[in-house]
Amino acid sequence: LPPTAELQALDAAHHMHPFTHGAGLAEKGARIITSGEGCWLTDSEGHRLLDAMAGLWCVNIGYGRQELVEAAAAQMSELPFYNTFFQTSHVPAIKLAERLASLTPEGLDHVFFASSGSEANDTNLRMVRTYWEMKGEPKRQNVISRWNAYHGSSVGSGSLGGMKGMHAQGGMPIPGIHHIDQPNWWAEGGDMTPEDFGLERARQLEAKIKELGPETVAAFIAEPVQGAGGVIVPPDSYWPEVQRIVDKYGILLIADEVICGFGRTGNWFGSETMGIRPDIMTIAKGLSSGYQPIGGSVVSNEIARVIGGGEFNHGYTYSGHPVACAVALENLRILDEEGIVDRVRDDTGPYLQERFAALTDHPMVGEAKIKGMMGSLALTPDKAARASFAADAGTVGLLCRERCFANDLIMRHVGDRMIVSPPLVISRPEIDTLVERAWKSLDEAMAEAET
Ligand code: PLP
Known about the structure:
Elements: H1 4-14, H2 22-28, E1 33-37, E2 40-43, E3 48-51, H3 54-57, H4 66-78, H5 91-103, E4 110-114, H6 117-134, E5 142-146, H7 155-160, H8 164-167, E6 177-180, H9 185-188, H10 194-212, E7 217-222, H11 238-249, E8 252-256, H12 270-274, E9 280-283, E10 295-299, H13 301-308, H14 322-337, H15 340-346, H16 348-357, E11 365-371, E12 374-379, H17 395-406, E13 409-410, E14 412-414, E15 417-420, H18 428-450
Parallel strand pairs: 3-13, 5-6, 5-7, 7-8, 8-9
Antiparallel strand pairs: 1-2, 2-3, 4-10, 9-10, 11-12, 12-15, 14-15
The structure holds pyridoxal-5'-phosphate (PLP).
C-alpha cells in the first residue's frame, strides 16, 4: 500500500467526494478504508474500526462474505452483462424478481430494477404519474413528500426529498412536488403528547391534499422510519392516520424501504413493522448488502397491470444487471437461512435496543430512539427543556462523530443527532463495545464543547 499521506494527497487532488467539502478534506485528509470483516473495517494506518453504520446503512450481512464474491464471479463468467430492454431477460433477473415477489407484502408482485435508490425513486415518480395518465386521470401529477426526508440525489429523487440544503443547489425541487412536516416529536412536538403530535403531523397530509385538490394528487412518499433525516421514529399514532388518509383519497402510497428494508427494523420490510400497506416500495442498499449497486421499485399488481397495458418509456442500461441480481439473490439467501432478520426482531435487536436506551443516562443525550437496528440519540444542552444546540446546530454532532472516529467507532451525525445502523450480524459483545465507545465519545465531545 502507498503511504497514507500520499493516498490522501492524491485523493484530495483528484477525487470529488459526495456530500463533502473539498477544502476540509485537503486539510485533514480522508480516512482510507482498506478492508472489512464482519462488523469491522481496517484503515490504511492499521486501525480496526467498529462500523456502527454498516457502510451507508447497507452492509446488512457484514463484510467479507465469500459466498457473495463467488456468486459474482460465477455470474461474471457465465454472463457478465445483458440488458432487459426490448423483451429480453436473463435468469438472475427472473429469479430475483420472483424471490422479491415472495418476500414483499401480498399484492406487490412486480419489480422494476435500477442500480440505486435514487434511480428507483426517479422510476417511482414517473411511474405514479404515468399510472394516473394511463388510468385516464392525467391531472393527478402532484406528489407529496416530507421536509427533511432523503430519497436520493438525482434531480427527481432529490426533489422528492426534503433537504433544504440540497434544494438550494441546482434547481430543485422540480414542479409538482410538495412537502409536509416530519413527525419529529423531540425537536418539534412542543407541549403536545407524542400521540397528539403524531396525529397532527399526519393530518398535515390531509390538509395538503385538500389544498392541492384531491383530484390532482398522485402519491405520498415516505420512509416507514425516516433514516438519513436523523432516524425519526414516528409516534404510534402517525402511520395509521396516514394510511387512513391515503385510503380515503385513493392516493398511492410509496414506502421508501431503501434503509428500512431487508431486516433493518426487525421484519423484512419497515412497512410490516409500521403496519402500512404501500402500493410501491423503493428498495436498494440491503438488497445486496451493498456488495453490488442495485435497487428497484416493487409495485402492486394493479400498477403493473395498468403500466403493462401501455408503454412506459423508462429504463436503465443496468436495470436488472445480472451480476448485481446474482449477488442480491445470494445475500437474500444468507439473510433468510441464517435467520438474520429473526435475530434483529427477537435476539440481538432487543439487546441493542436495551443497551442503546441506557445512553439516555448520559447528560448530553435527550432521547434515544431505536427501531430494530436503526437508532439515534438527540444531543441536548438541556434535557428537561428538550433544547437543541440551536445557535450552532450540528457542531456538537460533528464533534461527537470525530470523537467516535478517534475511538475507532463509526457513527454518523445528522445535525445534533447521532446515528447507529450497524450490520445486522452484530454480536452481543460487539454491541457492548459499540455502546461503551459511544459513551466515551459523548463524554469527550461534551468536555470539548464546554471548553
Ligand atoms: N432513499 C433512502 C431512504 C435513502 O436513505 C437513500 C440513500 O441513502 C436513497 C433513497 C438513495 O439511494 P442511493 O444512494 O442508492 O441512490
